[in-house]
From TrEMBL:
<dbReference type="InterPro" id="IPR009537">
    <property type="entry name" value="DUF1156"/>
</dbReference>
<protein>
    <submittedName>
        <fullName>DUF1156 domain-containing protein</fullName>
    </submittedName>
</protein>
<dbReference type="Pfam" id="PF06634">
    <property type="entry name" value="DUF1156"/>
</dbReference>
<dbReference type="InterPro" id="IPR029063">
    <property type="entry name" value="SAM-dependent_MTases_sf"/>
</dbReference>
<feature type="domain" description="DUF1156">
    <location>
        <begin position="13"/>
        <end position="73"/>
    </location>
</feature>
Length: 435
């Protein structure tokens, strides 16, 4: 082990332009993201290619003639330019992304469509590092540090840096204060790195069993129109109007989508055939039919609301009191769907949707106490801290952050998972500890 820290590559050079382009390519299409991104949605996920480059450049020695002479049979270290090109290869950049980006921009400006992706190679994270490159890297690092250096990331979040380092066979120490992040690290980095591909058949088999059981139990609560798939259910909190007792949805505006030519918004209906409704119904308006002025007008702003029934103000303190006393409700006011053609659009909740919600509420109310006692759902108190807004709106426990149907989904999954564990152990015996 050296007694003084050697000069490292990042102190002399980092391919910022190349990494910037590759980082954008990495997230260029929602359907082609790195698999790690699909494990859990992380709000500040670092690009894998940039994470790999920074981690590597922080431990690889700066190029010197002495370094090249120490590895006479390695062309990757023969010259400084070759050494830098090797770093790019180690992180999966197998061409010149700057040149590729220029070609794409020129083609776009000329209205010409390039063959292929314009770069001549796949996104960096898709390109496996060869065994010979990893072996040479380890040899260089051991010569520099006396042993393989450990990559430490104490606030690892979604796991980009630990994943990139593990892929190169480097020791990693990583953690995070968030239990979700720690779970993502274990499932997305630690287990694949230590267990390898041998786990896949059993993971897929038992994962399919779990998913099918959960789907069977929940299918009735998520009705579909023929040929559609649901992207998202769109909700609003609601409180009783203090004067009429009718539900007031708390909406900052009625927009669903503002993209030019693809506008979508909801229209609120408070009466039907001369009869005042206890809660409003919603119609989805698309394209040119959208009244932009109405769509930009909601029922709530700056903590206060306006009742759509008498157009009078509902005080913010009343809203908080209603929430804290259990009188805040949730209204489903739109459903984002994908049609068989692949088009994404919106529709209003139909009768089947509303009946399914009622059935889900009844089912959840029947099982919630049992689930709470079993610890299947998180009933811990929301912690005191700098942000007390959840408590102001009646969200005293973590489970209160979910609608009844959402809690039913989480509870069903947790219950089926707990039931599956002894089955896996009985079937696989001692090998179950590896799954």
């Amino acid at each position: 082990m050296t007694t003084s820290r050697p000069r490292v590559l990042i102190e002399d050079w980092l391919p910022v332009a190349e990494l910037g382009i590759e980082s954008r390519r990495e997230r260029g299409a929602a359907s082609a993201l790195p698999p790690l991104s699909f494990l859990h949605v992380w709000w500040a996920r670092r690009p894998l290619v940039a994470s790999a480059a920074v981690a590597l450049a922080g431990v690889m020695p700066a190029w010197t003639e002495e370094l090249a002479e120490s590895f006479p049979e390695a062309p990757e270290l023969r010259t400084e330019s070759a050494y830098r090109a090797w770093l790019l290869r180690l992180v999966g950049i197998l061409g010149d992304p700057v040149k590729g980006r220029r070609m794409i921009d020129a083609a776009n400006a000329a209205g010409v469509k390039l063959q292929g992706n314009g770069y001549g190679y796949r996104q960096a994270f898709r390109n496996a590092v060869s065994r010979s490159d990893i072996d040479l890297l380890h040899t260089v690092l051991r010569r520099t540090w006396g042993e393989l250096p450990t990559i430490a990331d104490p606030t690892a979040g979604g796991g980009s840096i630990p994943w990139a380092a593990s892929r190169l066979g480097l020791p990693v120490v990583a953690n995070d204060l968030s239990g979700v992040a720690a779970s993502v690290l274990k499932a997305g980095v630690e287990i694949p790195a230590t267990r390898g591909l041998d786990l896949l058949p059993d993971i897929r088999k038992w994962g399919d069993v779990l998913v099918k059981r959960v789907e069977k139990r929940l299918k009735e609560f998520f009705p579909l129109n023929e040929g559609e798939s649901v992207i998202a259910y769109i909700w609003a909190n609601a409180v009783p109007c203090p004067r009429t007792g009718r539900l007031v949805p708390l909406l900052r505006d009625k927009w669903l989508r503002k993209a030019p030519g693809k506008e979508a918004a909801v229209r609120m209906v408070t009466s039907a055939e001369g009869i005042e409704l206890r809660e409003p119904r919603f119609e989805v308006i698309l394209g040119r039919e959208v009244d932009k002025a109405d769509a930009s007008t909601g029922t709530m702003a700056r903590g206060k609301a306006v009742s759509p029934y008498d157009n009078l103000v509902i005080d913010g303190d009343y809203i908080k009191e209603a929430a804290q006393s259990g009188d805040m409700d949730q209204l489903l006011y739109a459903v984002a769907v994908r049609k068989p053609s692949g088009e994404r659009t919106f529709r209003a909740p139909n009768e089947a949707d509303l009946q399914a919600l009622q059935a889900a509420n009844r089912t959840f109310n029947a099982v919630k106490d049992e689930w709470f006692d079993a610890g299947i759902l998180p009933t811990e108190e929301f912690p005191e801290g700098n942000d007390l807004r959840p408590k102001h709106y009646g969200l005293d426990r973590w489970v209160d952050f979910f609608t009844p149907r959402q809690a039913l989904v989480h509870g069903t999954f947790g219950e089926e998972f707990a039931r599956l564990v002894p089955e896996v152990r009985e079937t696989l015996g001692e090998a179950a500890d590896q799954v």
